[in-house]
Every structure is written in C-alpha cells, then in structure tokens.
Amino acid sequence: MTGVRWPIGSATVGGMSERVVRMNRAVWESASYKHVREYDDLLRQAQIGESLTSAELEILGPILRRRPAVVHLQSGHGLDDIALIKAGADRVIGVDYSSVAASAAARRARELKVPCAYVVAELPPAPLRDGCADLVYTGKGALIWMPDISAWANDATRLLARGGHLFVHEAHPMVPLYDWDPHVARIRSDRGYFNRSHVNDTFPAQGAVEWQWSIGEIITSIASAGLAIRELREHPEPFWRPDDVAAAAWDGRLPNTFSLLAQRP
Ligand SMILES: C[S@@+](CC[C@H](N)C(=O)[O-])C[C@H]1O[C@@H](n2cnc3c(N)ncnc32)[C@H](O)[C@@H]1O
To answer: Does domain 16-263 have CATH number 1.10.287.620?
Structure first.
C-alpha cells in the first residue's frame, strides 16, 4: 500500500480502500477502549475544558462567540466538544465510527450536563441533514483515515449552512516522516511525503493504514468543494506528544500541525 499515486480525491482501487476502511474501523473500535480505561482521567480533563490549542481559540474565537451549532467529524473521545461548548458553541454533534468512543464521549457529556450528542457512523457521509452546521470542526488525526479526500470535503461542505465555517486543526502531512530521535531531527527512510499511505506504528497501531494527503491536496479538495479558504497557519507544536517522548523534530524548527479555516459562501 505504499508509493502508489492515484488521482487526487480518489483512492479506490479494486475495493482495496473499502477493505482497509473495514480493518481500520475494527482497529479503532478496539483502540478506543483506552477512552473507557482512562475514563476518570479524561473526565477530569474535560471538566477543565482546555483541550483546544491557543491557535484554535484565536482563529475560532469570533465564530464561537456567535454560538454556532457544531458538527465534529471523527469526534473520538470528545474532549474538544466540551471545550467548544465552554468557548461559546451552542451545541455539538460528534460523529465517529467507533461505538466505544462515541458512547464514552456521550457518557462524559451526560455527566457534565453539556449539550453534546454522538452519532455512530462511517464517514463520509455523515447521517445529518444538509446545512445543519454553522461550524464543522475536525482534525487531530482525522484526515489520515479518509481514503477519498474529495468525498470528505464535499460532505463537510454539504453539512454547512450558508456562511458557515469548516475548521481543521490537523497533524502536518510532514509528521509521519519524522523519526523520534531526541537529539537530531531526521526523515525516516521508509516514508515519503508523496507516498499514498503507510502503516501506523504509533496509535492505534495494530496494522491500521493511514492515507497521506499533502497540504496541496487538502486545500485543493476543500476549494473544489466550493469553500473559500480564509486562513491557513502552520505551527511547530505537535497536537499529540506520547508520554516520555521528546523528539528533536518537535523543537520548534519544523511544521507539526496546521490550522485551516474555510467558509461556505
Ligand atoms: C485520532 S482520533 C481523533 C479524534 C478526535 N479528533 C480527537 O481528538 O479525539 C481519530 C478518530 O477517527 C475515527 N474515525 C476514523 N475513520 C473514520 C471514519 N471513516 N468514519 C468515522 N470515524 C472515523 C476513529 O474512530 C477515531 O475516534
């Protein structure tokens, strides 16, 4: 599954992507028990409600002050949903294909009495009505699970009301290339920026396959879906630092995340 280039937006070859999505879903279902095992710790973090980065709060601040209805695609443990409510969102619907992740997130939302609800579904499409969101929020390890970036962008656009925003805060596509050497920032010899996919060896691991989308492909898919790009920022901070790892690639010289804001005209 590496090194092959398919036309932008289309990574379906002989049903291979469907098989990979099925396998990835099984891996996520199993890996998401982490959210159940760590429920109390995640609940504490959710109560603090500080999972959004300062860049996210800065870019989203003016939008969240208008109390948007939010759809969070690939909502995972849902901590960001509670932080979005704390920062002003009126309500959040999270969509994730892991029933384990969605039910842990729903339990947390009930316990904290926040207006967040969860739907279990494989994206795209989200089983939600056209134009239901003022803000579609996603990222932090979301786009890499999409075999067809154009289908994803079209569905995110469909969910937006006129004037609504799509916001993505995501790992920079360079990140899979960095090794975690603590002293020297190196490019892994087994990875390439222009490869199509690779096997995840961090989390959720277990053979899950990540698709690779370059910055150019991500922006082109969003613009082609009909959204106007309002802002793109690249950041040196990773969104995820596994315990006990301090890689030189995270020392501030390299891009580790990006934030993208686009708007439906
Ligand atoms: C790395 S997690 C990030 C989730 C979330 N943004 C967060 O910070 O918790 C990726 C999530 O995407 C979900 N996912 C992956 N592919 C999906 C798909 N095709 N449809 C729905 N959910 C998917 C997984 O179940 C997992 O919960």
So the answer is: no
